[in-house]
Design a protein that fits this description.
- The chain is an alpha/beta fold.
- The chain folds into 2 domains: 102 residues, Rossmann fold (3-Layer(aba) Sandwich); 198 residues, NAD(P)-binding Rossmann-like Domain (Rossmann fold, 3-Layer(aba) Sandwich).
- Helix content is 43%, strand content 15%.
- Strands 1, 2, 3, 4, 5 and 6 form a 6-stranded mixed β-sheet that branches.
- Helix 1 packs across helix 12, helix 4 packs across helix 5 and helix 4 packs parallel to helix 11.
- The relative contact order is 0.12.
- The structure holds nicotinamide-adenine-dinucleotide.
């Protein structure tokens, strides 16, 4: 298998395969672009079926971080890491230490944080071995509530663009994944009067959402068949694909998950079907924006910048409309312009 021929390879600057014999760590760090600053992006731990799947994931996620940081006007490049393994079974403090040592060897070119399967506590373990960890307790803390807040505002921006008003009262929203981000997003949506339909593979997370937000629980796969106004993917990526597209009834797709589209072609298909898509790396930038403030934390400046996601998305939607282009294509061209200017 050639790395450079992978469809997801996009001139990534550096891809590092990390191994530690003692702990069994197998990780991949992908640094996509450092023109705007150190490659910054979380670490995901997932039980990938194959190594190729892990490589594809880390390459796509790292590129997404480049675009996300550029769109949020942050002095950061794009990178991401994946640890191959089951986060419930294989994760130990020693494994996280080994991962931290690999980050340290990159000398600050890559800055890590948590992502799916990795908690702030896990990152605190890694941080015993390296200075290049963001989003730790006592600094800017868990980014998830900020990601959720930005996503909520992005949903409002999408509604405003499509219907002329942003009220969520009575709107039906399908939230796929009620983990760190999905839970807080449900809270905002519930407070705004939305009717929630939720799914997750974690029963405890589901029960909590059902109880606290009067959410209707559905089986994992049937989330795509729900008669809803908005579909908010907040679990893993590639949920908008050839199998799910024909089932979706929502006229807006706006959620926090990274890499929501299985391929770039789905961007155009969504436009053709009249579905307004909020590009994932624009709507889910709230967490990384908050992290960017952590060395001189200023809660109100951070909140204000997270709130800028509403306008950024509105600009993307308006340009897409005016130029008759899919929203993902417009966002990518905005991000490229910022990168080229650097
Ligand atoms: P998380 O692991 O806390 O939550 C993900 C949830 O999805 C879990 O509860 C998990 O059980 C559930 N899930 C997994 N597979 C599922 C399936 N097939 N069907 C339904 N539910 C499923 O992760 P998170 O931090 O909440 O992140 C969620 C998504 O948002 C990820 O794609 C992540 O990359 C992205 N994201 C997170 C942040 C952040 O601040 N945490 C920032 C930007 C983007």
């Amino acid at each position: 298998m050639s790395l450079f021929d992978q469809p997801a390879f996009d001139a990534h600057e550096q891809v590092v395969f990390c191994h530690d014999q003692l702990t069994g760590l197998k990780a991949i760090i992908a640094i996509h672009d450092t023109r705007l600053g150190p490659a910054t992006g979380g670490c995901r731990m997932w039980d990938y079926a194959t190594e190729a799947e892990a490589i594809n994931d880390v390459l796509r996620l790292a590129k997404g971080m480049t675009y996300k940081n550029a769109m949020a006007n942050l002095p950061m490049g794009g990178g991401k890491a994946v640890i191959i393994g089951n986060s419930k079974r294989d994760k130990t403090p020693e494994l996280m230490h080994a991962f931290g040592r690999h980050i340290e060897r990159l000398g600050g070119r890559y800055v890590s944080a948590e992502d799916v399967g990795i908690s702030p506590q896990d990152m605190a373990e890694a941080a015993t071995q390296t200075a290049h960890i963001a989003g730790l307790e006592g600094k800017s803390g868990d980014p998830s509530p900020y990601t959720a807040y930005g996503t909520f505002l992005g949903i409002q921006a999408a509604l405003k663009h499509q219907t002329g008003h942003e009220s969520l009262a009575g709107k039906r929203v399908a939230v796929q994944g009620v983990g760190h981000v999905g839970y807080h997003l449900c809270r905002h949506l519930h407070q705004a009067g939305a009717r929630l339909i939720v799914t997750d593979i974690n029963q405890d997370a589901l029960s909590r959402a059902a109880q606290e937000f009067s959410a209707t629980v559905v089986e994992s796969d049937s989330i795509y068949d729900q008669d809803v106004d908005i579909y908010a993917p907040c679990a893993l990526g590639a949920t908008i694909n050839d199998n799910t597209l024909s089932r979706l009834k929502a006229s807006i797709i706006a959620g926090a998950a990274n890499n929501q589209l299985a391929t770039e072609a789905h961007d155009l298909i969504l436009k053709q079907r009249g579905i307004l898509y909020a590009p994932d790396y624009v709507i889910n930038a709230g967490g990384i924006i908050n992290v960017s403030y952590e060395n001189a934390y200023d809660a109100s400046a951070s909140k204000q910048q997270v709130e800028g996601i509403y306008q950024t998305l509105t600009d993307v939607f308006d340009t897409a409309n005016n130029q008759d282009l899919p929203t993902g294509k417009v966002a990518a061209s905005f991000a490229q312009q910022r990168l080229n200017a650097a």
